[in-house]
């Protein structure tokens, strides 16, 4: 009986935890370490895999938009993803990896510089993109990685593209179910345009030295595959892969290791 009571209390307390607390607990359970990186405008949470210093290659993960809105009506107090898919992907990655947190996510919604516009209208704004690039470059200054790969999921893929030209020693940018044409995506869903955000589709082509790999789910109704394909076809040095049986969240973590091998 005592064990049942303790289990009930634990479940109750977990249910009362914030999205950031639940995300962090999942990261701890998977064996990731965490640290905070400061930029001129924001703080960024970073999660690190244990084998962070063993090779010259580093994979940098960037999560999606999470939950900017509650029930599509109210701006969320905490935009952190309720589904920690990005952590499950990173756990399967045998290459040294970090998750670079977006401004105001992962428990930092009330931190310096934060405002809910940075996970709604300004989610891909110049302020966000510049701070993400600054945070990563500052972190990389501590290490000796020669080959940087950025892997962006959903809205994190948009940010990955927008910051790519700003990152030292970047070799490859990978997107997964990524919002690569913000205007077309907004029109497709009938959403208000994100006028204060940058649009990857409107930017100049990435440097041809940067390899691009774009993954799309054939059943994705959040970011339809055609949006990703049209972007990829206009880029230099870009490959496009479309996967049957995958939508926006399912089932990327079923065989992530196989998809990573496509980068080779």
Give a description of the structure.
The chain has 264 residues and is an alpha/beta fold. The chain has one domain (19-261): Alpha/Beta hydrolase fold, catalytic domain (Rossmann fold), CATH 3.40.50. The protein has eight helices and ten strands. The protein has helices at 2-16, 19-29, 85-92, 126-140, 155-163, 182-189, 225-233, 256-261, and strands at 33-38, 43-48, 57-62, 69-70, 74-75, 97-100, 147-153, 170-176, 211-217, 238-243. The strands form two sheets. An eight-stranded mixed sheet has the order 1-2-6-3-7-8-9-10, with helices on both faces. β1 and β2 form a beta hairpin. The longest helix has 15 residues, at 2-16. It is globular. The model is unreliable at 3-14 (pLDDT under 50).
Rg (C-alpha, Å): 18 Å
The CATH superfamily is Alpha/Beta hydrolase fold, catalytic domain
Helix content: 25-40%
The CA-CA distance between the termini, in Å, is: 54 Å
Mean pLDDT score, rounded? Answer: 92
Q: Please identify the top-level CATH class.
A: Alpha Beta
Q: How many individual β-strands?
A: 10
Strand order of the largest sheet: 1-2-6-3-7-8-9-10
Based on the coordinates given, report the CATH architecture: 3-Layer(aba) Sandwich
Order of helices and strands: HHEEEEEHEHEHEHEHEH
Please identify the structural class as seen in this structure.
Answer: alpha/beta
Shape: globular
| Number of domain units | 1
> In CATH terms, what is the fold-level topology?
Rossmann fold
Major sheet attributes = 8 strands, mixed
């Amino acid at each position: 009986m005592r064990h049942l009571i303790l289990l009930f209390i634990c479940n109750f307390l977990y249910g009362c935890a914030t999205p950031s607390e639940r995300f962090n607990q999942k990261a701890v359970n998977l064996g990731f370490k965490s640290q905070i990186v400061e930029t001129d405008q924001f703080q960024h949470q970073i999660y690190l895999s244990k084998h962070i210093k063993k090779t010259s290659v580093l994979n940098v993960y960037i999560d999606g938009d999470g939950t900017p809105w509650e029930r599509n009506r109210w701006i969320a107090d905490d935009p952190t993803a309720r589904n920690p898919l990005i952590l499950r992907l990173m756990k399967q990655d045998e290459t040294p990896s970090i998750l670079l947190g977006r401004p105001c996510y992962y428990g930092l919604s009330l931190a310096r510089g934060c405002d809910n516009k940075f996970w709604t209208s300004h989610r891909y704004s110049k302020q966000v993109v510049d701070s993400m690039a600054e945070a990563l470059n500052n972190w990389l200054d501590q290490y000796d990685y020669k080959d940087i790969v950025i892997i962006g999921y959903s809205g994190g893929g948009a940010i990955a593209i927008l910051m790519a030209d700003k990152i030292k020693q970047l070799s490859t940018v990978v997107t997964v179910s990524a919002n690569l044409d913000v205007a077309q995506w907004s029109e497709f869903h009938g959403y208000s345009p994100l006028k204060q955000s940058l649009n990857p589709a409107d930017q100049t082509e990435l440097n041809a030295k940067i390899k691009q790999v774009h993954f799309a789910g054939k059943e994705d109704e959040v970011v339809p595959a055609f949006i990703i394909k049209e972007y990829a076809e206009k880029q230099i040095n870009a490959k496009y892969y479309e996967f049957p049986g995958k939508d926006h969240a399912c089932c990327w973590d079923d065989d992530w290791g196989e998809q990573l091998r496509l980068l080779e």
